[in-house]
Amino acid sequence: MAKSCKGLAMELVKCLSETDCIKVQKKGYRECAGEKEPDITSECVGLRETYFNCKRGQVDMRARIRGNKGY
Asked: Is the pLDDT of residue 1 over 60?
């Protein structure tokens, strides 16, 4: 279960590395993922939300018994 969100994390990093926040402004991944700026594409925002829900599901006892949805 610890690695169930790893694929989402890798996709999020790949998506963020293609944004202007990383390329032009030279900010860190954590800064760009946490910001709500127009520099981040809607695809990256969707991946961020999905990754957040995946990590939250690891803490939720009901989800831990059933397993994470999706990915």
From this structure: no
* Sign of CA pseudo-dihedral 7, 12, 13, 17: positive
Residue 41 CB partners (closer than 8 Å, separation 6+)? 15, 19
Model pTM?
0.74
- Give CA–CA dist 28/26, Å, rounded: 7
Give the angle 52-54-59 at the CA atoms, nearest 5°.
95
Instruction: Give alpha helix (H) positions in 1-71.
Output: 6-17, 20-23, 29-34, 42-59, 61-66
Q: Is the pLDDT of residue 6 over 60?
A: yes
Which of 47, 58, 63 shows the shortest CA–CA distance to 9?
Answer: 47
Does residue 16 contact residue 33 with C-beta atoms inside 8 Å?
Answer: yes
